[in-house]
Amino acid sequence: MSKAEEYVSDRNNILKKEENMFLGSSLILNERERVLDNHILNLRSDDPTLSYQNSHDFIPKKHFFECRMNMVDTEIFNILRRLPKGHSLHTHLLAAASIDFIIANITYRDNVYGKLINDQFKLRFLKPDEATKDGWFSLEEKRKNDTNFDSWLKQQLSLIVQCPRESYPSLESVWEKFEGKFSAIYHLISYKPAFEDYYYQCLKELYEDNIMYGEFRATPLPFYDLDGGVYKAEDFFHTILEVEEKFKEDHYDFIGVRYIHSFNRGISLEDLRKELEDLLTMKEKFPKLIVGLDFEGFEEHGHTLLDFHEELINVREKLDFFFHAGETNWFGHTDCNLVDAVLMKSKRIGHGFALSRHPQLMNLVFENNIAIEHCPISNQVLLLNDDPRNHPIIPLLSKGFPVVICNDDPAVWGATGLSYDWYVTFLAMTPKKCGLKVLKQFALNSIRFSALDKDDKVKAMDVWSRRWVKFISEMIEEI
Hints:
The protein is an alpha/beta fold. It has helices at residues 3-21, 31-46, 64-72, 75-82, 99-105, 128-134, 139-145, 149-157, 164-167, 171-190, 192-208, 233-250, 269-285, 309-315, 337-343, 359-367, 376-381, 393-398, 419-429, 436-448, 454-478, and strands at 86-92, 112-117, 120-125, 137-138, 211-218, 256-264, 290-296, 320-321, 324-325, 348-351, 371-374, 403-405.
């Protein structure tokens, strides 16, 4: 072998070793799966927008608000939409059903009123005399005189704008707008009849994206009606279960839902202790539904996990942890929540955006098989990462770390289900030689790292496997 040939051989060996380390590389595809795999690889090779020579046309490079419709028109997105993606593991309940649904199916009901409070628009159901007394205006009356009201309303409930980079010049500015979106609909969705339809829609949008199970982060909503009904926190959980059973009657292969309680990072130590007691009480009443806890909110504001470590350690045997951690660009302070998430044995880590800066933590995450909840569109919209080709999850994928693709708050940026986040991850964060293997691994990871118990995971894997075989057969017939 000449020196030139030896050089090429060494080069190929390095690339082959890296290829064999990437997430999903150990999977063995059957003959039928390889047919679809080749088709997907051909799509990646033939699409001019996926060529480095045409990188200015690369769809995921653009801001999601500017390219989401372009995604939908691609053949790869169509495949991902139909692919059985398994489970959705990181979604905030108040941002789970599309804004269009809320506007068309909830805000057009009788007795819906709006009001600007401290520069934040809010919606709720009220009796007319209560609304008039407190300065709320009727949406029904408003629409009679303002044909553009629904467009304005959509702007109040989502982050979508024509020029996102100009509208949100800093991470702090976009987070301020972002957190206000939850405040806008909080009391609207707390109206019990509206919540029942809203939650059904949450499950429907998952199912229509070929997702068969979901985990929602939330706090019990303060239910009310216009007849003076009095509701307790447990009524919230009963309603979740009732709507889920109704949905299962209509969709026989839907596995179900689990609930992760989310404390706000600004909570006081005294309130945390009280709410932990309440959560443990609810856990005893709903042992299968309530699977654990998390903290939510802008990670650079409020308390760190270290501030609450004693209280959390005391409940660790009764509640699993699914902590947001490392959702930051900072190095050396905010990202240190990752240390506590690992030490407190968090089952999964939400975002983990800063993890690749911490070699010791990376080793511990890998050794302890802690999955990273990867939310690429959220990271772009909320200004952690502009071009997904530079996303810090890529080194983790390259080393075969356990990663699950999640959607975070899809309604706020005009997405539904998981397909958009899968699309961005697949095209921007995996090598061009990656095809069906990594996609199948993403689906398998979503089941493996879910909060389902062992028996339910077996059932979920059986349902997913049958849907996977059907998907492969249908795709082969069409290509």
